[in-house]
Amino acid sequence: MPNFVFLNNAVAQQKSDFGQIRENNWLDIVRSKVEVLDWTSVVTDVRPFLESEDDLLAFTQEGLLSLLR
């Protein structure tokens, strides 16, 4: 479970349109963001932090969305 105080403070600093993120809506908010991300850019950003290229096989947009359901 996210720390909603810290998360909402960070979101407020970014001036996003998410409104208040709470226990009852955070999964929907994250899911809606993941659905529209340019996944090629996400993989490029994440790749340096992975221990092996094989880890990318498990790191898919579809896989992340299934965890958020």
Question: Keywords for this structure?
Answer:
69 residues, mainly alpha, 4 helices, elongated
Descriptive notes:
It is a single chain. The protein is mainly alpha-helical. It is built from four helices and no strands. The chain is elongated and about 35 Å long. The relative contact order is 0.13. The mean pLDDT is 92.
Report the helical percentage: 40-55%
Count every beta strand, where a strand is a DSSP E run of 2 or more residues: 0
Work out the radius of gyration: 14 Å
Biggest β-sheet: count, sense, barrel? none
N-end to C-end Cα span: 14 Å
Strand content: under 5%
**Oligomer classification:** single chain
Unreliable parts? none
How many helices does DSSP assign? 4
Q: Which class of secondary structure composition applies to the elements?
A: mainly alpha
Q: Per the principal axes of the C-alpha atoms, what is the gross shape?
A: elongated
Mean pLDDT: 92
Query: What letter string, H or E per element, gives the SSE order?
Result: HHHH
